[in-house]
Amino acid sequence: MVEICPQLQSHGACNNRPCQYRHDIRLCEDCGIVCHSLSLYEAHIRSKRHKRRISGANTFHRCPVCNVNIQGPDQWTKHVSSSGHRKKTARQGASTVVEPEEAAATARSEYCTLCGVFVSRTLWTQHAQNSTHRRKEGFAAFKVTLEEAEKNKHGVTVSEGLDFGIVRPADARTGVSLQFSMETTVPASRIRVVEAKLSSTTAKNLSSAFSTSVAINTILTYGRPGTGKVNFRQSHNGRYEDRVEIIFEDEGLGQRFVIVRPVRAIVGSQADHDLLRPKAPFVPRKRTARKPETEVLPGIPPPALNAIPYVVKLSLAAIPKNLSQTLSTGSLSDVVGRVQRIFLPKAWDSATYSRHFKNLIWIEEYQMEHDLEMYDISGAKLDRHGVFYHLDVPGLAENRPSVLVGDQILVQSHDAAASGRWYEGRVHFVRKESVGLRFHAGFKGWSGGQHYNIRFKLNRYPLRRQHQALDTAFAQDRILLPTQIHVQTRNITDLLAVSSIVQRAPSAVPFVIFGPPGTGKTVTVVEAIRQLLVRYPTAHILACAPSNSAADLIASRLIALGKDTLFRFYAPSRNKSQVPDELLPFTVTNSDGHFTVPPMETLRHFRVVVSTCVSASMPYGIGMARGHFSHLIFDEAGQATEPETMIAIKTMADNSTQIILSGDPQQLGPIIRSNVARELGLQTSYLQRLMETDLYDEVKGHGTTVVKLTKNYRSHNAILKFPNEKFYKGELQPCGDPHTINAFIGSPQLVSKKFPIVFHALSGKDDREASSPSFFNIDEATQVKTYIEDLRADRKFRVTDQDIGVITPYHAQCLKIRAVLRAVADGVKVGSVEEFQGQERKAIIISTVRSSRDFVQYDLRHTLGFVANPRRFNVAVTRAQALLIVVGDPTVLSLDPLWRSFLNYVHLHGGWKGPPPTWDTHAPVLEDEGYDQRVRETGLADMNDFTCRMESLTLAGIDSVEDGIDVDANVDRPWREVE
């Protein structure tokens, strides 16, 4: 354990060389804690605990009228407006407006000014001895010492402002300097400059990017300032800080003293910082209750909604009012408990299956509705073009929000906000950044200068389709809840995946193709479809995938079947421009140009129909008989919720229908927005649920219920090796094309020329701006741009923009990286892990963003970032074919055992770039060690290891998970495309 130097604590500087203790510290006076690095200090000042402290939320004040102590400004406001307070002021003839006084002790308690809490008098001795109070006492003394160290003293002044600002990497490599002055203001004094040193270099085994020099033994003369110099030299981008300690001696008194000055520098691009810096300070968006929509005039629906001749009525399936009320109040654990007790069935079987999932769908819908509120627009303008009104929608191109033809958008005149009257605009077309709306004939008073309030309404059709499927009578145990008794004994354990599928009996349990990254899941699915068509002339197959892009991939590989055999069904809301040209001949459109279905007889003739999981409701909706499809096949099944998968199964399957699932439970599951729904299991896909049972054990069930694909055709062995061992028992075999996977061996981008992985250690700063809670990191964005520029400029190892992908977990970082790449590599795809699942690139660069350990807990709670999300990590690192570059702060990432193992792997194979690890990379990583917990406990145990970020996690835990559902939790979760 590294401790803060005792001499530094008592004297403000340290004269020991070398010193085994820590010297790089910062203070938070408001909270009374010490931070042992700049990143921890910056993390602390943005933490909930610090913000509560400076807001006064934890501070007690005394009401002199009522003689009571009140905590926080909100409670004070409530108190002075209460009837009790008003009555007492009236009796005393005083004003109800009183000034709060400092909290006072009571008959039973004492107020601790250091800790800001009331303590029972009987427990005061115990309180004074606890570690938190002692640390506060130590801080009070420590603060005085450090303040004294930075003061000018004994008539000597040292100039301020040793900040290098943003230094160009080329200048940082050669070195830059700043000069400081020292002078005495006492004419008769004789002050000698003894030494100047850096706090960090005092400690044993620590080095600094800074150095300092002064003329030792120089005598400062009144009126003639002495000078010193601070040099900065660093070959890596990032942020650096230290402290210069200048030791003087007053020869007249024979007394030495120290004056300390902080010094800092950022290595990076000034242009990037100017371009990407926060447009405005981050201020959390306050969620206010929407005023009710008391009157809504319906708009004119688009013709697309009538493109499909549905004959089965679709029920409304509205959220039950009592469930909605239950979800509206309480902490996460309270809500989950109430839902389990009141709404979910006590038993889990085929009879209660539908009721269970219907409730989970409603819970998810409740959260989706709330998340849509973040896209409300105030003061928008409408452009009129004939009968259509065009509305610009920020973020539309990125599906933030997702808007489809037929959706509803509510519009209200800005001047009529109090009326509760809204006009429903129905979406008739969607462009890149705007939508075209049609309103009720009563929509009048429009003008180009008029401002409107805008509300987006949730498209409930996908949810209603799921409810419709769950309401059907189909409930076979062999499909919903298969067990060993449903398995028909056949000795086919040595058969490959395709032959296992082809030879299955009609009433068999679902079959799983377990396909790790790069093993050709979709190729296997496509080949199985082909073989089924050849072997069974009467076979009809419905092939589904969670997204249109995944469904398009299946269809495009089946084009050779011909237009009479293959039909690709799209929802009428789908725009033709989003459909690959080669698939258009396999679709049907109506006279309005909207996608539709052919007559029933023609549809029955197609042997393969491909759609998304949600659009697979179409056959049932238009009246197709159950059992028409002999096989229901789902690719990327791990990304669909179980109710989405059940749309096709529960509406189309009969006693003989075969169910085939292809996917990887070790990769990303479905995107679920509701914490409650996640806790209750909605994030567990049908594929994953089956794979977690003994029946689908990949060894025992091989060839009978599951086949695991093991040949990886994507990645270089060095890239594959770590995820292979961590997630796939080391069974994957690298079989990629040598020309592709070895494309960067020997590249100047590599640290080790035969190891195509680079971890670039960079301590940057994560920021937020305006009201967006999403994080970005300018330092990492600059480093990513530098790598891409170097890759594109290399004439020996040639790549195009399309060969490179950038993955980052935060939407704000995606936007910042796209901004810096716009002028240099506009064709490089930058996106989230979800956007890259199922894809590959020759070179993948990952920006992990986080540099403040305080916010790692946010990721642990919401599983948005890479930390503490193994599946996200797995998908990110397995997208690369030939080169993987990860840019991140190792101090943050190493808190997670999986990331620590990966960092060790890269370091031990010579792929590390930047400042070296601060831990032993040879030491074994314990999976359940809880490195963040270890650091947190260390910070609480001893004042000498002030890890303020970890302390804030422990002491601010009251407003952690149990606070309820964070309004910012879903800002980086993309909206899924399901139709």
UniProtKB/TrEMBL annotation:
Q: Which Pfam families does the protein's record reference? A: AAA_11, AAA_12, MOV-10_beta-barrel, zf-met
- Parts forming coiled coils: none
Stretches that traverse the bilayer: none
Keywords assigned by UniProt, alphabetized? ATP-binding, Cytoplasm, Helicase, Hydrolase, Nucleotide-binding, RNA-binding, RNA-mediated gene silencing
UniProt GO MF annotations: 5'-3' RNA helicase activity; ATP binding; hydrolase activity; RNA binding; zinc ion binding
Q: Which residues form the C2H2-type domain?
A: 26-50, 61-85, 110-133
Q: Which chemical reaction does it catalyze? A: ATP + H2O = ADP + phosphate + H(+)
Q: Where in the cell is it found?
A: Cytoplasm, Cytoplasmic ribonucleoprotein granule
SMART domains, from UniProt? ZnF_C2H2 (SM00355), ZnF_U1 (SM00451)
Residues of the U1-type domain: 23-57, 58-92, 107-140
What EC number(s) does the entry state? 3.6.4.13
Report residue spans for region: Disordered: 78-97
| GO cellular-component term (any) | cytoplasmic ribonucleoprotein granule
**UniProt main location, coarse:** cytoplasm
Q: Which GO terms describe its biological process?
A: regulatory ncRNA-mediated gene silencing
- Ligase in keyword set: no
Query: Which family does the record claim for this protein?
Result: Belongs to the DNA2/NAM7 helicase family. SDE3 subfamily.
State what protein this is by name.
Answer: RNA helicase
Q: Which organism is it from?
A: Piloderma croceum (strain F 1598)
